[in-house]
Amino acid sequence: MKIKFVKRTRIKLILLLVILGIVIIYFRLLFSGNFNTIKYTPDIQILENKIREYEERMIPNLGDNGEPAHLTGEDKEKGDEALRNVALNTVLSDRMPLTRSLKDCRNKKCKEFTYKPTLNTSVIIIFYNEILSVILRTVWSVILRSPLHLLKEIILVDDCSTNEDLKGLLQHYINTRLSNYDVKLIHLEHRMGLIRARLQGARLATGNVMVFLDAHCEATEGWLEPLLGRIEQERTAVLVPIIDVIEANTLAYSTNGDSFEVGGFSWSGHFTWIKVQDEDAKERLGPVRSPTMAGGLFAIDREYFWEVGSYDEQMDGWGGENLEMSFRIWQCGGRLETVT
C-alpha cells in the first residue's frame, strides 16, 4: 500500500509539472506577440472595431504607382485644411491604402546589378505624433520591398507621443496585421529627442546592419540590397540612399531620374545639397563619396556604429547630429557614400 501511494504521488507531481509547463508556454506566447489566437476582451474589441472602420474608409488603388491622388467633397476640404495646419494632407493619407504600389525608378543599368548580401538588418524608425497611416505605410513599404531573409526586425520608437492612436491602436495593428513579421514598438516614458530616441532603438537592435529611417518615407524596389552589399564589402562604409520626394498635397512620388546630389555643408554649419564633385563618378553606377549626409536615412554596420562613438547623447532635439556624425566617420577611417 505504501508503494502504491508513492507511485500515485509521483504521477500527480509529474502531471502538475506538465500542466505548469503548458501554462508557462501559453503566457510566453501570448505576451511575445506570436500567439495567433487573439482573445477579444471588450477593450481589444474596441480597438479592433476602430481598425476595421479605419480600413473601410480607404479607397482601393488610390495613389497606386506613386501617382498623384485627389479627394472630392468634404474630404477635400478637410484635406486642404490639414495641409495648411500641418503641411501634409493627412486626410488623403488616411484614405490611401497602406500597401500602395510605387514605380521602380532605378536607372535601367542598376536593375541589371546582382546583389547577394548575407548580412541582415534592423530598421529603426523614430516618431513623435506622426500620423498613424504615414507610419504604417512606411513600415509596409519596408516589409513589402525587402527580401525577408535580409530584414531581421523593424524597431519603432515612440518618443512619448501624445496622440492616443499611436499607443493602443498602433500596438493592436502590429499584433493583428503584422504578427507574421518581427515588428517591435517601444514607448518612451518621457520625451528624449531624436538622438536619444535613436540610441534607444540602436541598443535593442540585433541585426548585422542598422538602417535608420524617418517615419514618413516609402521604400522602393531594390532599396535594401545595395546598402547591405556595400557594407559587406567594406564594413566601415556608411551608406546613404538617394532620397526622392513624396508631395505633401497629393502624396505623389517624384524623382529626379538619374541625376542626384550629395551632402555638403556651409561654413556656418548648415547642411546643404551639392553637385557631385568627381566627374568620373557622375557617369559611374555605384557608390559615390559624399562629404556629409542629411541624417534621416542611412545604413551602418551595427558594431562600427558603436566603435565610432555612436551619437553624442548630450545633443537635444534635431539638427547638427548629421554633420557631427559625418565628420566623425571620415575622421575615424570610415567612408560616407551615396548609393546610386
UniProtKB/TrEMBL annotation:
A Gene Ontology cellular component where this protein is annotated is: Golgi apparatus
One Pfam match? Glycos_transf_2
SUPFAM superfamilies named in the record:
Nucleotide-diphospho-sugar transferases (SSF53448)
**A single GO BP:** protein O-linked glycosylation
Per its record, what are the GO molecular function terms?
Answer: polypeptide N-acetylgalactosaminyltransferase activity
Q: Name all Glycosyltransferase 2-like domain ranges.
A: 122-308
Q: Which residues form the signal peptide?
A: none
Q: Where are the transmembrane segments?
A: 12-31
Instruction: Specify whether Glycosyltransferase is a keyword of the entry.
Output: no
Entries under InterPro entries matching the protein: Glyco_trans_2-like, Nucleotide-diphossugar_trans
Keywords of the record: Disulfide bond, Membrane, Transmembrane, Transmembrane helix
Q: What is this protein called?
A: Glycosyltransferase 2-like domain-containing protein
Q: What lineage is on file?
A: Eukaryota, Metazoa, Ecdysozoa, Arthropoda, Hexapoda
